[in-house]
Amino acid sequence: MHYYFRLQLLRASRRLADFGLPLPVAVGLGLAGWVLGAVYLYGRFTAAPYILVALTIVTLWPLSAGARFDRLERLFSRRDVRLIRYTEQLTGGSVSLLVLLGYGSWLAAGVLLALLSLLAEFRRGGSGIFVLPTPFRRYPYESAVGLRRYGWVLPLLYFVAWQGVSADNVNLLRFTGVGCGLLVMSFYADTPPPELLRMYRSGARGYLRDKIRTAGYAYTLFALPIWVALGVVWPDGWVLHLLVIGLGLLYITGMIVVQYAGYPRQPDFLRSVAHVAGMCFPPLLLILLIGWYREARRRLNAILT
């Protein structure tokens, strides 16, 4: 069984090497970023322990894909499969558990531990014929597929938003609105293969326009209840509310454009760092988007025309 983990480590190392980042550096940056993010949550939100629990479960959710279970069951015994699954979930959630224990959030730590155990036993996906209907068109497909995969995150966000209203915490409510934007961004984490792009007849400009428009529609649909609650409960801050909404749309646009700026390859390390810097400083993101959009159109035109 230890060969499985060695193989996963080797695969991750090779993918990161293609990205231009050594594995130890990536692990260090990931751990530091997660801990700093948790510290930020504790400094800003009273519901920080449960926000951290939700973020941890969302991050580890892809490990419960039914296809992964099928592959593991073909290679290992049932006992070894369970051991692998528990090792993955508990290792992935260990940093959050340590943070929760360090802050004395014993109940949240217990909830997280229970959820990690349930997630280790849970198999996502199946062979049923039912397909969840969505308000999105078949093409572009990202929003429809993303909602079917991660739609369960929305009730969690709405629950946190309700807690923000109950606690009279406007920042918590804004956080959930931004969370809807991050959810939509996750739909576009992977770019489709060139073979799939050739079915589009609208050219590079129309292709990007349809992607951005559908993503903006998804963001508006998901976040609308939260922004309505903000407008009703805190009407005096409507200017800031609109700025945050616009920021979410800008982030989503940046996510889509940067994915195609280096197409068919995934964004490299430097471009990803620039993207993160732009998210921290939105005027920079606006400047970067101009160059990335031109590059994305040039690369897509080579395939679509």
UniProtKB/TrEMBL annotation:
<protein>
    <submittedName>
        <fullName>Uncharacterized protein</fullName>
    </submittedName>
</protein>
<feature type="transmembrane region" description="Helical">
    <location>
        <begin position="90"/>
        <end position="119"/>
    </location>
</feature>
<keyword id="KW-1133">Transmembrane helix</keyword>
<keyword id="KW-0472">Membrane</keyword>
<feature type="transmembrane region" description="Helical">
    <location>
        <begin position="139"/>
        <end position="160"/>
    </location>
</feature>
<feature type="transmembrane region" description="Helical">
    <location>
        <begin position="21"/>
        <end position="42"/>
    </location>
</feature>
<feature type="transmembrane region" description="Helical">
    <location>
        <begin position="216"/>
        <end position="235"/>
    </location>
</feature>
<feature type="transmembrane region" description="Helical">
    <location>
        <begin position="273"/>
        <end position="293"/>
    </location>
</feature>
<keyword id="KW-0812">Transmembrane</keyword>
<feature type="transmembrane region" description="Helical">
    <location>
        <begin position="172"/>
        <end position="189"/>
    </location>
</feature>
<feature type="transmembrane region" description="Helical">
    <location>
        <begin position="48"/>
        <end position="69"/>
    </location>
</feature>
<feature type="transmembrane region" description="Helical">
    <location>
        <begin position="242"/>
        <end position="261"/>
    </location>
</feature>
